[in-house]
Amino acid sequence: MTIPAACVDENPYDVLPLGVCQLDSALRVLLWNATLEAWTGIARSEVIGRPLTEFFPAVGHRPLRSRLASVFEDGVPLVFSAALHQSIIPIAVPDGSVMPHRTFIRRLDGDDARAIVVLEDLSQPMGQLEKLRVERRRLAESEASLQRRQAELRLTNDKLQEASERAEQACRSKSEFLANMSHEIRTPLTAILGFADILLSEPDAAMHRSSAETIQRNGEHLLAVVNDILDLSKIEAGRFQLSWADASPAAVVHEVASLLKVRADAKGLAIEVTTEPGVPDSIATDEVRLRQVLLNLVGNAVKFTESGRVAVTLRSVGAAGQPRIAFDVQDTGIGIAEADLQTIFQPFSQADTSAQRRFGGTGLGLAICGRLAGMLGGGIEVNSEVGVGSTFCLTLPVGKTTQSGVAPAAEPASAAPDTQPSDKPLGGRLLLVAEDGPDNQRLIEYHLTKAGAELCIVSDGEQATRAVLGRDPTAKPFDLILMDMQMPVMDGYQATAALRAGGHTGPVVALTAHAMEGDRQKALAAGCDDYATKPIDAPKLIATINAFVTQAAATDA
Ligand code: ADP
User: Which residue, of 95, 200, 439, 497, is most buried by count of CB atoms within 10 Å of its CB?
Assistant: First the structure.
């Protein structure tokens, strides 16, 4: 018989800690691995091509022989642990005994003339094969755990990547926001400063008037931008407080329509309000914020519509058990292109930048509205067609109301407390004004003296406390102190606290450019009775002062 060279030379089974040989049906050895050489002391070159019975006569014994024959004939694999008489390759160890081992015999796939024989050493506490199996299992487990770890790492990596992209995006948005904010603030400022120059250099009275009007218009726009930015940053920082109470949706809508009537009338537009049957008289919401959102939506409808109409419809929507109310604000205006619908709720985005020049606006309104609607538990949807018009639909939950009944009369609320009809509502009042800015001193002096007040003006908190606590008891006391909160030497908070500690009980009204949420609380906590913000709204400030001094006079009487 010719033995293939590969059988004689080293074979891949040499590396295994198992004895491996191959036999043909006449039990001739076709393959003999290095482990068998080591265990039996029989070299491969010796055994290959010769019957195994020559080396191990017991293989020729009948019972074993017939079992081996069945491997070839029936293809039934054999597995047996070595009892000496059963072992086809009894392996002697140095003390002369047989190494305990297990034998596996199996016919080769597709070849009924050859069988593979594998011997496993059982002398070790754990058989080699078992060891291999355990090792393989361990490897498989550690590979699986490695894969799990890799998957986790990939996930963490993805998350990190996402977070980093979000951070970058936030950073970019913040920079864009700041750039936009700067632009929005500089634009009206440019007009204010430019027209102030003209006002100073131009002798023409008509030019004076139009310059002053431009300054006023741009100043008001600047104030709107700053207020919007404050609102938005408060919302984004999660510091925006809502105050929930029952409110009449119909009344709020009528109020908004009434506030915007002048603007709509100027363009020849009617604002039609319809309340469909089934709309609740009262919903649980934050009325001020609802009004703010509707003012913006209806204000935009009026702003972006040149002809036709603006309609506000209140509808009852939502499933039973989860009633909702919808406010549809529909116009016949310029409409919004499909692509812009995605961005108009983002800060500083305006569908058409040329429209900004035409219509004005900050591009912050819808960003605030969208967020406020979300905070109120609802949302805003838009449908629009360029040249045809837009419908903004605000939906809100009805919530649990504590009242039911007829909606209150739809009267617009007055923005400020009524001032006295008198020309000199503060006539005969002595006020202490603590304010460090000379321009603001002059401005306050102008308005308050015009309203009849007598003023004592100081530039910091220390001077204010000295002026009050060190005042000659026979001198006329101050009727009210108007206290700027941010001043050099001693600020308004410290000064008010010092005044209260020194026994001063008269009214102190904080006047501050800090218009953030919490500033009011901070001023009241320092001992102030009320709070007014800069820029100064003169009629409102005079009304506030008047209310305090009149009240104090009534208490004294
Ligand atoms: P703005 O102060 O510019 O009105 P908004 O955030 O309220 O800012 O609106 C963003 C942009 O959405 C507007 O500049 C305008 O392009 C578009 N828009 C909003 N409402 C309407 C509307 N009713 N009709 C047409 N365009 C609108």
Answer: 497
